Amino acid sequence: MTSSRVPGRIRGQLGDGVAGVLSQGVTAATSLLAQLIAAVSLGLSQYGVFAVLLAMLVGVNALYIGFVCDSFTVFDRHAPRCRAALVCAASLLIVLFTTAAAVLALTFAGGGIRSAALYAALVGCKLVAETVRRLFVARVAFRALLFNDVCCLVVTALALASLPTVVWSPTPAVLFGSMCCGALATVLVGLWQLPAVEWRGLRPGWTELPRLAEFAVWRALQSGLRPLTLLAARLVVANVVSTAAVGVLELARLVVAPLQVVINGSGSLLLGKLAARERGGDRRDPRSIGRAAWSLAAGTVLGGLLSATAAVLLAPLVFGRTVDAATVFGWVAYLAVWAAGLPYATELVTRRRARAVFVPRLADSLVGLALATSALLLGAPVAALPWSLALGGVYAVYRLRVLVESGSESTVSSGVCDERQETAPAEEAESHSRRTPHLPGGAPGSGERK
Predict the structure, then answer these.
(1) Membrane spanning segments where (predicted)?
(2) 10-residue block means of pLDDT along the chain (450 residues)?
């Protein structure tokens, strides 16, 4: 490599990194836009219903990403048997989750069959859209991902802007329909950008599915624990207190919601980088993971405190309601604890040790949910919920850190999807050679490319 080419490669690396961060910002803005309109236009009770249904969407999305999307990021998605197993898993989960969404909407929201159908359609479109998005992450094509997410934001905004001309008073179902338009835009624009090798010739197959599940089940359970715990917490609040109390809780969470999306996006970016490094056989450096954990947690605390302070002052102007400061700061603490453990969990996942991540995360969820439920049953204010969930996560951070730093268990290949196509498509091979990143011992996600 000539020295004159190094600056260009560094610029390309920085460009991908900036595009990845901006992409998460755009995703956060899209979600925040819909939630802001819901918070302003819906009553507290209806907003509580919207929050519970949105929580289920986030939960099933996390399960799907953990099982399907993380699997095709870590393994070879072009190996024929692995590809067939991934298609089979994706199809089964989409049918299962859309059916569950329709049932929840019918039993909890009470909006009728039309409302349930709209919500189920949103869940299905969102899962397909997330598949398309994660293909860009697996290809380390963050600039294309950014363009895709910008298109989603524009279409969602246009759909939401048209609401006053279509309906007099928005409902959760109408808002979900607008979000569905953005998800469809993600799919169409993504398929237009992706090379045909990524989406043509998709056929389901059962042969490799059991072996794929050895990794994917644990990864999906681990990924889904946090959003499903939050869904359970909202349902507890709705039953112990009221759906209006869920609305109060969600107004406080909405203040720091962009931080949550950025944290999740940082995890996705880190997973792509670390998975590429693992495939390349690079030496692991637990110190770099530790620095990533401290940086992410510190950034979350700083950003959360600034957002919380501004929100307490500005919420009456934006929402027409006040937000509870103790609840907002509780959500900041919860996100900081989660951010501190995310780099350690991601490192273990790239070693295909998803089961090792699941156990402390399960303890985190059960303890936090038990503390929150007990506090509410004893008459504590709703502000106790995020603080209880944060306390439950402290052990998980400690345990994940020990697992990464000990290195007591070597990476064990499950044998699934390890075979390579003898004649991989030239376009994909060229793209992989250009895009495969490394993660040196410095700041996480700042590695040079080959």
Answers:
(1) 21-44, 50-72, 84-106, 112-129, 141-161, 173-194, 293-319, 325-345, 366-398
(2) 44 60 80 84 83 89 88 80 88 93 81 83 94 87 90 92 71 86 93 86 80 82 83 88 83 79 70 62 67 83 83 71 82 89 81 78 89 90 90 88 68 45 37 36 34
**In contact, 328 and 306? CB cutoff 8 Å:** no
Domain interval for residue 226: 11-409
Which residue has tokens 């600034």? 306
- Domain presence at residue 272: yes
Predicted pLDDT of residue 431: 39
Report if residue 262 sits inside a domain: yes
How confident is the model at residue 450, as a pLDDT? 36
Residue 440 lies in a domain: no
CB-CB contact of 284 with 408 (8 Å): no
What 3 state SS string does the chain have? CCHHHHHHHHHHHHHHHHHHHHHHHHHHHHHHHHHHHHHHHCCHHHHHHHHHHHHHHHHHHHHHHHHHHHHHHHCCCCCHHHHHHHHHHHHHHHHHHHHHHHHHHHHHHCCHHHHHHHHHHHHHHHHHHHHHHHHHHHCCCHHHHHHHHHHHHHHHHHHHHCHHHHCCCCCHHHHHHHHHHHHHHHHHHHHHHCCHHHCCCCCCCCCCHHHHHHHHHHHHHHHHHHHHHHHHHHHHHHHHCCHHHHHHHHHHHHHHHHHHHHHHHHHHHHHHHHHHHHHCCCCCCHHHHHHHHHHHHHHHHHHHHHHHHHHHHHHHHHCCCCCCHHHHHHHHHHHHHHHHHHHHHHHHHHCCCHHHHHHHHHHHHHHHHHHHHHHHHCCCCCCHHHHHHHHHHHHHHHHHHHHHHHCCCCCCCCCCCCCCCCCCCHHHHHHHHHHCECCCCCCCCCCCEC
Q: Looking up tokens 């802001």, which residue turns up?
A: 36
Task: Give backbone dihedrals phi and psi of 121, rounded to 5 degrees, phi first.
Answer: -65, -40
Structural domain contains residue 414: no
pLDDT for 436: 36
- pTM (whole model) above 0.85: no
CB 37 within 8 A of CB 175: yes
Q: What whole-number distance in Å separates Cα of residue 121 and Cα of residue 129?
A: 12
In this structure, which long-range contacts are made by residues 141-145, counting pairs with CB atoms below 8 Å and at least 24 apart in sequence?
Answer: 141/431, 141/435, 142/16, 142/17, 142/19, 142/20, 142/23, 142/269, 143/15, 143/16, 143/19, 144/193, 144/194, 145/19, 145/20, 145/23
